[in-house]
UniProtKB/TrEMBL annotation, chains A, B:
PANTHER family: ARSENICAL RESISTANCE OPERON REPRESSOR, TRANSCRIPTIONAL REGULATOR, ARSR FAMILY. InterPro entries: ArsR-like_HTH, HTH_ArsR_DNA-bd_dom, HTH_MetalResp_TranReg, WH-like_DNA-bd_sf, WH_DNA-bd_sf. This is Metalloregulator ArsR/SmtB family transcription factor. Keywords: DNA-binding, Transcription, Transcription regulation. It comes from the Bacteria. The keyword DNA-binding applies. One of its GO terms (molecular function) is DNA-binding transcription factor activity. SUPFAM superfamilies: Winged helix' DNA-binding domain. Residues 19-109 form the HTH arsR-type domain.
Length: 109, 109
């Protein structure tokens, strides 16, 4: 099994010294990804799965959103480095990038 | 010295179970506050002060933004519970609400 993930800049600590303008822009972009309630629900649903992964098909049923909407949110979170993905036949499966969430946690340390 | 802060809902853990729609909306609203680079720079500047506080006047000089813009960002972060404030004479001084940042950190645990 080989999940793929993009390399995107992440996450300068907020309280460990003055952020540069570039660091602030990168970090703000990551928070922008998280300011959609549906995306937060998707992350919590993925984390709640016994195998820690979902395909888009499972989220459509759980969240009552359309397939294109779900796919769009998954794509945005994948491109932000919050999710990794693997294609298996027809479906793409997504997992949370735990290291990315740990880095986000450290932003507030 | 008595800093005041508003009581606003905060911060359901993202990975500890399925978020309810209401929890997702509250958490997304908090991330919306953080998706402005200037606000992140302001938080890091406040944290970098030796006395951990600033007045708006000090931020105007450091960030090169107008006084009304700075005041708007401070008000938004105060109302989101990220900052507490105290009036002293002409100026209002702001501090980071450490408990709030700790709660945000726990969102990613």
């Amino acid at each position: 099994m080989k999940f793929s993930k993009p390399l995107t800049p992440c996450c300068s600590p907020l309280l460990a010294g003055k952020l540069t303008p570039e660091e602030a822009v990168q970090l703000a972009a990551l928070f922008r990804v998280l300011n959609e309630p549906a995306r937060l629900q998707m992350l919590s649903l993925i984390a709640a799965q016994s195998n820690q992964e979902v395909c888009a098909c499972e989220l459509v049923e759980s969240l009552g959103l359309s397939q294109p909407t779900i796919s769009h949110h998954l794509k945005v979170m994948y491109e932000a480095g919050l999710l990794e993905k693997e294609r298996r036949g027809t479906w793409i499966y997504y997992r949370i990038v735990q290291a990315r969430l740990a880095a986000l946690k450290d932003v507030f340390s």
